[in-house]
């Protein structure tokens, strides 16, 4: 269509009322002219009028056809259908409200979950230019997995050795404790990023004020004491004051010149952890000097493809760089399996979710989407059922319309308009539900027992809007199509006669009900399995007693709390806490098992144990103070706890767990054995019972504790553990106060009471069980509503039949039994199909299950019982109502 | 009584006939177009009169003709249609296509 024609069509659309009138005038003139022509030819005037009209044809139809030529008749049809739909809905407000609420819940829940999936998994970081040109670069880990971090010297070689990349940028996360040095009271831990000087340039990120790093900054011979503030941090801490640019602030005990403020939407490459600041490599007090080692890999890197270059070219170039590096630095470039380290490159868009967890994350997202989709389906089936009942009520009207020449497609279209209008209103209501839902879900990260608050950006974007629109249209069609087709399929003649076909034939409605039950069974089975997993996981013995335990994680600020100060701080804190009423013991360590972050891995070798050639001797390890095991409630099976006498200058001691003994000291007396680690040696003084260290589902792993007081400056993290006689929660405040008094420069990053400490390791199960339980219940409720309404309708249609049966001597109880029995057959079929589907579906969620088989008979048994009870009730209530209404009465009418 | 003979015009040629008619005259209203087709065909072809109007609307939208309201000799309001350059080009295309087709049909119908 040419633009001129489009413009003309548009003008015709705007002026279509006036143009219609003109058309009519023109045609009238034509008929009159012909009429007078005929009269002149001698035809009788009256006959001439009739003949002129006849020759001209049906004026209404011709006008209609002329208007169709303008190409806008569909708009008029649509408007007419819309008006009709609104009228129909206004006529039965109860139905409209029920339908809109049902669809709204479904569309809202689906959209809310999709917003989260979109925000977390699909939408890349913002504020970055041409994101699709970026590629993520990984160096494989020491133990083999491909998606590891890279080292700075390597990254420089990547940049110079791969012309297909126009630049390489990298970051590492840098925690910094803010204390009164810049007016933070109480002390607080913030996260910034140490970045390559190329970071802003390669990402194409902008600044709100000032500038990004200048050439030379962050490089040998240049300044590194410069900082670009994160937008949010700048607003929160400096009140959005632009004059801060050029000023000096103190970070990690060093002076920094603020050179700029990042643009608001730029949150670096890891938006979930919105950085408070960006400092270049070499930043004093923040960037570790070890970062310049080739073997120290802590930077996550992206590259930008040069114009015209492909990722394959860049990949090939990097691989040859890597091969060269392996030759030049064999030690740093060989992993535990004696293989060369590998470099992996994937499009940055595929790395929005770290590839290591992408499978699980997308699996979980797919599961959630499937579940809300299921709820929406059940809702649509309900609407379809209600529309179907109404369509059958309107059979006569539809029959008449078809009889006087309406095309079937036209009637179907009009009925679909009606269901789409319902879905549209449902979507409006759904938006409210979705915004409540996303707000509730956005709170989840703040509940995590993490030392920092994760940022979950789930504000809807165009994609979410498109998704919601598509869901709405599909929901409208799904609910409307079947009823429309069924209603217009009805035999014309029989629908015009008053023939009541028996309500016994439920047909499509029975199929819909069975389908609803099937979907509800799948949802409930999935939710039930996750709930069981959660219960199982909570029943797992973590190897320490969480009830009555209070743990406080503290980040120590390096310059303000120098290493030599730390033992004094620990002892004073523990001593003062121990004096609080209600405290039975208190201790400290670098880490409490199953904590979100912290804990280390070090190579230990038990003397006398000969490792296999490529055996990885890395073992999880942390440091513990005196009475640590007694306080956290871990039993020592042999030997003793660490004591205050285990201090510097005394031979070093260690406590190992049972798994360690089984693996490395099998058949020997572990006490007194020596462990070698690097240049240090330890004497084993105790054996602790096995516990869980990384996650609750792990098999027993070897573990080694060192005496904390023999390594006073080893770590920047400190965990205070307190065992309370009764109420651990009541101790949280006094303990916080003591820490703030004794160590004003150090930040409390987390206070966990009782099993709160375990919550992070149970998070997927907890969220899953919660959401699935909620949606499963919603699905079952909607399905029950559907059964109820279908049964009530069917029963009401059969009142006369029941009356006849009663008149012939049947008892009411028999009729009730018959009705409920027939309903239950449908439900049983649906249930059986649901069980088969569930058996398949739960196999797919095995990765979330914990100590429960995907076919767990208990879960499936409970689901069956629950569905049976609910459907029985939904079938029985309408039958009961009929019995009360006295069907015999119905025979007296008509 | 001189009732005209009426052979329906061949399908698909109405647009062409209208365009041709308009190319002969400066401007015409609907009734004049119908009459002129009738007369020019030696009173053989008669437009199904009503179907003239959907065709005129289609051609207006396509931009082949323009219509302006004017007065008839006896001072009645009527819409007068006129050919545009695009309409003239369209007429040539259609005539050429029609010639090709009717020559081909003529070949098939040749006796012997």
Structural description of this entry:
Chain A is of the alpha+beta class and about 900 residues long. Chain A has 25 helices and 22 strands. In chain A, the strands form 3 sheets. In chain A, strands 1, 2, 3, 4, 5, 6, 7, 8, 9 and 10 form a 10-stranded mixed β-sheet that branches. The two termini of chain A are about 60 Å apart. The model of chain A is unreliable at about 500-505 (pLDDT under 50). The radius of gyration of chain B is 15 Å and the shape is globular. In chain B, helix 1 (about 15-25) packs across helix 4. Helix content of chain B is about 50%, strand content about 10%. In chain B, strand 1 (about 65-70) and strand 2 (about 75-85) form a beta hairpin. Chain B is an alpha+beta fold and about 110 residues long. The chains are: A alpha+beta (about 900), B alpha+beta (about 110). The interface of A and B includes residues 4, 8, 66 and 69 of A.
Helices and strands in order:
The complex is a heterodimer of chains A (894) and B (112).
Chain A: H1 3-14, H2 16-40, H3 45-56, H4 59-69, H5 73-91, H6 93-122, E1 134-139, H7 152-161, E2 165-178, E3 188-195, H8 199-203, E4 207-210, E5 226-229, H9 231-238, E6 248-251, E7 254-262, E8 277-280, E9 300-305, H10 311-328, E10 343-347, H11 355-393, H12 395-403, H13 408-447, H14 462-489, H15 492-496, H16 508-539, E11 549-555, H17 566-578, E12 583-589, E13 600-603, E14 605-606, E15 618-624, H18 628-632, E16 636-639, E17 653-657, H19 658-664, E18 674-677, E19 680-688, E20 703-707, E21 717-724, H20 732-742, E22 747-753, H21 763-797, H22 799-807, H23 812-844, H24 857-885, H25 888-891
Chain B: H1 14-24, H2 30-40, H3 52-62, E1 65-71, E2 77-83, H4 85-109
Antiparallel strand pairs in B: 1-2
Helix pairs in contact in B: 1-2, 1-4
